[in-house]
What we know:
Number of strands: 6
Shape: globular
Strand content: 25-35%
Amino acid sequence: MPEIIEIEFHSKYLSDFQLSRLVQASLRKYTVAITAYISDAVIIEDMCLGVFFDHFQEDGTYLTANGGIICTTKIQKAWKEGRFWLLETEEGNYLVGSFKRGGGRRSFLELLRSCERLKSED
Length: 122
């Protein structure tokens, strides 16, 4: 019998594609603990802005409301596991479920390119 997954949204409408990406991401095991799943991600000044889901406080004591807007602290590391990108910040590890249309993926690729340039200059 298939599992039933219940998802509530409080402040943001997501497409079926975005929802399916978040569900796929939540079913996978990762090499690090995931602090939150982010949809509609865009990178601004080395930080990720997007809609968050399953955001846990670092000590794991409570869960904040799903569907809110989050702006992470500065991204220190980015890597791909399976089909998803993970971002490491001082606050924790965030999984990008989908990028914002019209520039989200482009902003992320620019971040990766700028990091590669910095590495090559060292």
